[in-house]
Structure formats: structure tokens, C-alpha cells
């Protein structure tokens, strides 16, 4: 078997999710090649070559891939991937965008967001917002798969010595054009891969109050997340949303502040190792699943938490 | 321009689903069904485009058993002009849905096809992208803003890290994110009027598409359950437990 992993990156550095996907590829077994498609992405190719278990890195460096447009990446990956038995990418917004296009171009089904590998053709994935786990078997000759990064421990990012080849396959579908992007600026760790996440919900009342959570997050070296209610109310930007339709996180510690714990939110954080809930409503569903629950007004509890943390950290 | 919207009948998003004891699937008997929330947003966006004078006709299509006509009627009550029901009692997977929609696109020749970004039952997030690939169209996935300008559509997409805007050549496929709009409610007079709007029914065979599922579901299980832990009395106890018991800080 031969597996092609599509690297996730920002043209300058390899994202950790790629190492999680390589881990999923190792669980399938076989030779693992990594495709890095981007613009001026040589450093990413070098980084991918150091990942444990990778035998070859293919670098497609061209302006047409610079913004990861699904139409161009779809054609490239379908072309390069047709000789592989498996094509894997992280189930982030980029992978979710181009991978179904790859699958359709190859006339195969896609298995989305796998959490476990049972065998080379059988995988476990969540359905119904994570309220059920389906074991699915693919009968296609090429398995096109997106991987939930948090479900696989990453392989080591150092120590590997894969060969790096440059690919001069240029696929410009000519259907779409990048206009601009507005990326949220943050010095905190990436939400999807942070070891600790502090999240706020509707109970935060406004965006200003999220500063309280940011202070806690800075003490803990944590990322800050939010429920859909907090995003829809305009407290924080949408890329902070944790849930079925936002990001899926699985940190060591998840602190939910002023979040009731709806099914859709649960879908995004249920795999967290330790869940803490701070909510003044003791009937809130989040308490049914939290390892540690504190029934308290968050406006009193959060500042106290900051003081207590300063004492012990 | 003509806009095609695809809608799916799914379990209502508030229902706590139950896995069948024989692990063959999720129990859908006597469970409240509704239009997939992302599809509602797709219908709303099409109706708004019509209200702005951008769209001239809205055609809504759904694939599935007879009961799907309920969701098509809902879309008609919200402002769609006519419906197409592709009737089948078989399981339809994303690739097959995309193939069925492709033949509808070839017949109807819409300038814009709007779908939800994912259905809340299978959570696949595939159909729109597959349809775009099969029809050779550009795709604006996870849209939070859609602006049609002449022969192009500018789509602002919700991506990891923020927002990204792309310009797509028309015809194009757009999939909706939750923040694209706030869907309206259908009024009673509009629900009555929707009953008189045209609804064509056809089968996959009529469209020349053979259903050939590639994925088989071996079993469906409940996720590992998580038990409630302990309630702590105050913040000091919480920090103490996190440090000394859970050892996560």
C-alpha cells in the first residue's frame, strides 16, 4: 500500500495537524509520501521530510496553489494521488474544501473525519454530531479520507530523513481567484491543538468580558474558545467557535465558562481529557459530563480563579 | 438568473439521537424530522437574492423518500418557486447525491447552486464540493457572505484562522455556513400558497443515475459515555483538584 498525505501549512511552516495525519497513515500501514502544495513553500517541504515515518516529500511550488484554492488543489491531488491506495488530509477547512473534489474527480467516495483506523479499508467516524460512531468499510480502489487530527497522537516532527522531490505539475482550473483574507491575530496557541482551552459562552454577556478568560488563558498557556451563542452574539470572531460546525478540540483540560453544553457544542469538545464547567445554573447539561463542576457566578469565580492560579503556577 | 437549492430531510437538530440496540444505525422511527439547518440557510440566501432582483427563479431539489416533499414544501413556503423531488427509498451517499444533482444541473442550467455545508446527520461535508467537481464549476464553501457581481460571485468563506474571500466564475456552487444569514419563518398564507406551487417527482433511473454505494456501514455504536464528575465547593478546591488530582495544570 502507498499512502499520500496532503500537508497542511501556511506556506512557511508545517502545521502540527499534518503530523497527526501521518500518524493515521502509519496506522493504515504502507509507504507514506507527503505532498506539499503551496507558493514559496520550500521550508515546509524540508520540515515534512523530518517527520517520522515519511519516505518521500513531493513539493508542488507554484503561485496557483498559494491560497489553497479547492479547485486547483483538487485537480493536483487527483492527478498525483491516482497511483496511491490512500489519500489523506486533515479535516480542517482546507482539507474539507478540496478533498471531496479529489474524490469526485477520481469517482470514489470520501470517508470524512475518521477517528480510528480498523484496517486498510475500514474506519470509525462520528455521525449525528458525535452522538454515534459509525464503522464504515470502503469498497473503492482509492480511499480518499479526511482525518480528525485530535483523534491521533502526532508522529515526531524530527528525526525523519525523507527525500524531497519537486513536482512541476501545474493545475490551474481557472474557476476561482483569491481576493483577500482577514486572519484573526493571536499570540496564544492554536485552538485546535492547544493543550488547554478556556471557552466562554453566552454567559460572558459581551466581548469585553472575554478579557477575563484571556488572562486565565495567558496564565495557563491556553487557547481561548467560544460557543456558537457567543460567536453569534458577536462577542468573539467565528474562528474561535468550538462545536459540530466549528473546531473540534481534544485538549488535556477544557474549561467551559458560562456554556450550557448543547449537543452541538459537546460535539466539539467531548474528547477532552478533563472538563471543567463553571456555570451558575446547576441544571446546565454541561454538569452531566464535567469532571469538575463549579456552580457559581462566573463574574466572581473567574477573577478568583485567576488569583488562585497565580498562587500555584 | 436561476438558482438551484438542494435541501435534505434530517432528524431535528434538537433531538438526542439513540443508537439502535442491534447497532445497525440510529433509531429514526417516530423521531421529529426537519429541514437540515444549513439547507434552510441556503434557501434563505436564494430568497434574498431574488428579493434583491439578482435571482429570477428558485428551484429547490431534494433526494429521498416520499416524505422529503414536506421539506420541499417548506422551501416553497419560504419563497422558492418550484420543487423537484428525486424519489428513492435507498440510502443515497454524497457521491451519488452529487451525481443526481449534476443531472438536475444539466437540465435546469442554474447560474448558482446553493447547498448547506454539511448535513447534521451524516456530517460528511462533501456533496457541494463533489457537485462542483463533477460539473466543472468553482466552489465557494463555508460561505458567510455571497455577493453576485455580473458574471462573478464573491464568496467570503469561514476558514481556520479567519475569513477568506474568493471570486468565482458563474455558474458556481456555494455551500452555506451558519453565519450566512438568519432564516425566516414561513407565514401561514405562504404555507397555503406553497401547496399550489409545482413539484415534479422523478427517480434516479429517470436521471440515468444508478445508485451504487461505495461505503458500507458495518455498525453504529454509542460513543463512550462520560459520567458526571464531582461538584467542587469553591475556586480554591477546583484549582487544588486540577493541580493535585487531575494533574493537568
From TrEMBL, chain A:
GO terms classed as biological process: fatty acid beta-oxidation using acyl-CoA dehydrogenase
Boundaries of every Electron transfer flavoprotein alpha/beta-subunit N-terminal domain copy: 3-182
Entry cofactors: FAD
Keywords: Electron transport, FAD, Flavoprotein, Transport
Keyword Protease included in the entry's annotation: no
Gene Ontology terms, MF aspect: electron transfer activity; flavin adenine dinucleotide binding
InterPro entries (UniProt xref): DHS-like_NAD/FAD-binding_dom, ETF_a/b_N, ETF_a/FixB, ETF_alpha_N, ETF_asu_C, ETF_asu_C_CS, Rossmann-like_a/b/a_fold
Binding-site list for FAD: 202, 227-228, 241-245, 258-265, 279
Note on how the cofactor is bound: Binds 1 FAD per dimer.
Assembly: Heterodimer of an alpha and a beta subunit.
Family, per entry: Belongs to the ETF alpha-subunit/FixB family.
Role this protein plays: The electron transfer flavoprotein serves as a specific electron acceptor for other dehydrogenases. It transfers the electrons to the main respiratory chain via ETF-ubiquinone oxidoreductase (ETF dehydrogenase).
Stated name of the protein: Electron transfer flavoprotein subunit alpha
Organism: Marinobacter vulgaris
From TrEMBL, chain B:
Signal peptide limits: none
Listed cofactors: AMP
UniProt keywords, alphabetically: Electron transport, Transport
UniProt domain Electron transfer flavoprotein alpha/beta-subunit N-terminal: residue ranges: 23-211
Xref: Pfam families: ETF
GO biological process per UniProt: carboxylic acid catabolic process
GO molecular function: electron transfer activity
Subunit structure: Heterodimer of an alpha and a beta subunit.
Family label: Belongs to the ETF beta-subunit/FixA family.
Family matches, as PANTHER family: ELECTRON TRANSFER FLAVOPROTEIN BETA-SUBUNIT (PTHR21294), ELECTRON TRANSFER FLAVOPROTEIN SUBUNIT BETA (PTHR21294:SF8)
Functional note: The electron transfer flavoprotein serves as a specific electron acceptor for other dehydrogenases. It transfers the electrons to the main respiratory chain via ETF-ubiquinone oxidoreductase (ETF dehydrogenase).
Descriptive protein name: Electron transfer flavoprotein subunit beta
Gene source species: Marinobacter vulgaris
Amino acid at each position: 500500500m502507498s499512502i499520500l498525505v496532503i500537508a497542511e501549512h501556511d506556506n512557511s511552516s508545517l502545521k502540527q495537524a499534518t503530523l497527526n495525519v501521518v500518524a493515521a497513515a502509519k496506522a493504515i500501514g504502507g509507504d507514506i509520501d507527503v505532498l506539499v502544495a503551496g507558493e514559496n513553500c520550500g521550508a515546509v517541504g524540508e520540515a515534512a521530510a523530518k517527520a517520522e515515518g515519511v519516505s518521500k516529500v513531493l513539493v508542488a511550488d507554484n503561485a496557483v496553489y498559494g491560497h489553497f484554492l479547492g479547485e486547483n488543489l483538487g485537480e493536483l491531488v487527483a492527478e498525483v494521488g491516482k497511483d496511491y491506495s490512500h489519500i489523506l488530509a486533515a479535516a480542517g477547512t482546507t482539507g474539507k474544501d478540496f478533498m471531496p473534489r479529489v474524490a469526485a474527480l477520481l469517482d470514489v467516495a470520501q470517508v470524512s473525519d475518521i477517528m480510528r483506523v480498523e484496517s486498510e479499508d475500514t474506519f470509525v467516524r462520528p455521525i449525528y454530531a458525535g452522538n454515534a460512531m459509525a464503522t464504515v468499510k470502503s469498497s473503492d480502489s482509492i480511499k480518499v479520507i479526511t482525518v480528525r487530527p485530535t483523534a491521533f497522537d502526532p508522529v515526531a516532527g524530527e528525526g525523519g530523513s525523507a527525500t524531497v522531490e519537486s513536482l512541476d505539475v501545474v493545475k490551474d482550473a481557472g474557476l476561482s481567484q483569491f481576493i483577500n483574507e482577514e486572519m484573526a491575530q493571536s499570540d496564544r496557541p492554536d485552538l485546535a491543538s492547544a493543550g488547554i482551552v478556556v471557552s466562554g459562552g453566552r454567559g460572558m454577556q459581551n466581548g469585553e468580558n472575554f478579557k477575563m478568560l484571556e488572562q486565565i488563558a495567558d496564565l495557563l498557556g491556553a487557547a481561548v474558545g467560544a460557543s456558537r451563542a457567543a460567536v453569534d452574539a458577536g462577542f468573539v470572531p467565528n474562528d474561535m467557535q468550538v462545536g459540530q460546525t466549528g473546531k473540534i478540540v481534544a485538549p488535556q483540560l477544557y474549561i467551559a465558562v458560562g456554556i450550557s453544553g448543547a449537543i452541538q457544542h459537546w460535539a466539539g469538545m467531548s474528547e477532552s481529557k478533563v472538563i471543567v464547567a463553571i456555570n451558575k445554573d446547576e441544571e446546565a447539561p454541561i454538569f452531566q459530563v464535567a469532571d469538575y463542576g463549579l456552580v457559581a457566578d462566573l463574574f466572581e469565580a473567574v477573577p478568583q480563579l485567576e488569583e488562585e492560579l497565580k498562587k500555584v503556577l | 438568473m436561476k438558482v438551484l437549492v438542494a435541501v435534505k430531510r434530517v432528524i431535528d437538530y434538537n433531538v438526542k439521537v439513540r443508537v439502535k440496540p442491534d447497532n445497525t444505525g440510529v433509531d429514526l422511527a417516530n423521531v421529529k424530522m426537519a429541514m437540515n439547518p444549513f439547507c434552510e440557510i441556503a434557501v434563505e440566501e436564494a430568497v434574498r437574492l431574488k428579493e434583491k432582483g439578482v435571482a429570477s427563479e428558485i428551484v429547490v431539489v431534494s433526494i429521498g423518500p416520499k416524505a422529503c416533499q414536506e421539506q420541499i414544501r417548506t422551501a416553497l413556503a419560504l419563497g422558492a418557486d418550484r420543487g423537484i423531488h428525486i424519489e428513492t427509498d435507498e440510502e443515497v451517499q454524497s457521491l451519488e447525491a452529487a451525481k443526481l444533482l449534476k443531472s438536475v444541473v444539466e437540465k435546469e442550467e442554474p447560474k448558482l447552486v446553493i447547498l448547506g455545508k454539511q448535513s447534521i446527520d451524516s456530517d460528511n461535508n462533501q456533496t457541494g464540493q463533489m457537485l462542483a467537481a463533477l460539473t466543472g464549476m468553482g466552489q465557494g464553501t463555508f460561505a458567510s457572505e455571497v455577493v453576485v457581481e455580473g458574471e462573478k460571485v464573491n464568496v467570503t468563506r469561514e476558514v481556520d484562522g479567519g475569513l477568506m474571500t474568493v471570486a468565482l466564475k458563474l455558474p458556481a456552487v456555494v455551500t452555506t455556513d451558519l453565519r450566512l444569514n438568519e432564516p425566516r419563518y414561513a407565514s401561514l398564507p405562504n404555507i397555503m400558497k406553497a401547496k399550489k406551487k409545482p413539484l415534479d417527482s422523478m427517480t434516479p433511473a429517470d436521471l440515468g443515475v444508478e445508485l451504487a454505494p461505495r461505503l458500507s456501514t458495518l455498525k453504529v455504536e454509542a460513543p463512550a459515555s462520560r459520567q458526571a464528575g464531582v461538584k467542587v465547593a469553591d475556586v480554591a478546591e477546583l484549582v487544588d483538584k486540577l493541580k493535585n488530582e487531575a494533574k493537568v495544570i
